[in-house]
Structure formats: structure tokens, C-alpha cells
Amino acid sequence: MNSETIKRQNASRLSNVNPILAEKCRAIIALAESEGFSLIVTCGFRSNKEQNRLYSIGRRGVPDEKKVTNARAGQSNHNHGTAVDFAFVVNGEISWNAKLYQNIGRWAKIVGLSWGGDWRDFKDYPHVEL
Ligand SMILES: [Zn+2]
């Protein structure tokens, strides 16, 4: 994906979350850019239906499937527009290189957001919230 696609997706996915959160996320994206990193918003607002679908992953009897969330519908801050997930784009592809994601925590602290990587029972490194 190119930088235009990333910009468009980021604008669209930050358009329906809490405006203060959106502003802080734009600041994170700018901080990342200033350090030579490219961030894409993979999730902003999430419907209750989609939340329940995610909750079922790892709990529906599919062998070796891992849980992706402990939150049911209404329990995730994504359902209330107060959480955003980021991914790094490296050479046009999304990268899940764990080392990169420590930066999200650093940037979240700079702009005053909580980071999912600080959670005790379920670490969520791409996740930031108000
Ligand atoms: Zn999240």
C-alpha cells in the first residue's frame, strides 16, 4: 500500500472516533513520521456485532486458534470510539515485528494516551486509548 492509501485510511478510520483521541492519534502518526516510521490505523470504532465476532475467535473450537480479545460487545473501548489500533507499514506491507511496537507505547505516553502493551493480563501492543 502506498502513502496515499495510508493517508486516506487513517483519515477515514479517525473520522468516527472521539475527536480528542483522533487528534492525539494524528500526533502519534506525525511523531512516527518524524522518526521515519509509517503507521496505519487498522481499527478505530468497532460495532458490537464485530466485537462479538472477535470475541468468538479462540473460543469457537477451531484447533490452535488463539484468542484475540477478552472483551465482549460493549466492553471494548473500540465500541465507544475511545480506542485505536495501529500497525507499522514497512516497504508497503504491514509488519507485526514486535520490536517496532514498543514505539507505540513510547509515543502514546508522549501524547497522553494509555497503551495496551502496559496491560497486565492481555498485552495489546498495537492498541491505544483515552
Ligand atoms: Zn484495540
- SS field, number of helical segments: 4
Radius of gyration computed on alpha carbons: 15 Å
Shape type: globular
Helix and strand composition category: alpha+beta
CATH class label of the largest domain: Alpha Beta
Beta strands, count: 5
Major sheet, described briefly?
5 strands, antiparallel
Distinct ligands: zinc ion
What is the CATH architecture descriptor of the largest domain? 2-Layer Sandwich
Report the helical percentage.
Answer: 25-40%
Which residues form runs of ≥5 with pLDDT under 50?
A: none
Number of domains: 2
Distance between the termini: 28 Å
Write the H/E string, N to C: HHEHEEHEE
Keywords:
about 130 residues; binds zinc ion; single chain; Muramoyl-pentapeptide Carboxypeptidase, domain 2; 2 domains; alpha+beta; globular; about 40% helix
Briefly say what this structure is.
The protein is built from four helices and five strands. It is α+β, with helices and mostly antiparallel strands.
Structural account:
The chain is α+β, with helices and mostly antiparallel strands. It has two domains: 3-45 and 81-129, Muramoyl-pentapeptide Carboxypeptidase, domain 2 (2-Layer Sandwich); 46-80, no CATH class. Helix content is 38%, strand content 16%. It has four helices and five strands, in the order H-H-E-H-E-E-H-E-E. The protein has helices at residues 3-13, 19-34, 48-56, 98-111, and strands at residues 39-43, 83-90, 93-95, 114-115, 127-129. Strands 1, 2, 3, 4 and 5 form a five-stranded antiparallel β-sheet that branches. The longest helix has 16 residues, at 19-34. The mean pLDDT is 96. Bound molecules: zinc ion (ZN).
